[in-house]
Amino acid sequence: MALTVENTIEINAPASKVWDVLINPEQTKKYMFGCETVSDWKPGSTLIWRMMHEGQPFIPVKGEVISIDPNKELVYSVIAPDNAEIPDIPENYLFVTYRLTEHNGTTTLYVSQGDYSKVAMGEKRYRETYNNGEGWNPILVQIKAIAEE
Predict the structure, then answer these.
(1) What is the value of pTM for the model shown?
(2) Per the structure, how many domains does the chain have?
(3) What pLDDT is attached to residue 140?
């Protein structure tokens, strides 16, 4: 059985504005724990989430852009490269999918992350992300606030 965290939020902004919040490093820093995205946003390209930690550059998450359809869908893989408990091999990467659907200037943003049932320490990683049912909600609330500014 697949183990996937899924969340959805309605945002009072066009998909293009939500998209900018998702991929613009200046915007991602505001909601992703100070991390900026570094990528050229092409399928197969590296995607890193970079931040400063104790005065040093730090990459808490890395992955690869799997597919991209601007203003509609983005799929990328992720792993925490500094987690010594989980080998940095393709089998241990999770996949994050953003889907944007716009209706009359309002955008529904759907996010999924998984499949935790197929990766090392999947149950533990799932519980951490699921966060008692909150999942991506705290991040989505911040994305919404930024996009609606």
Answers:
(1) 0.94
(2) 1
(3) 97
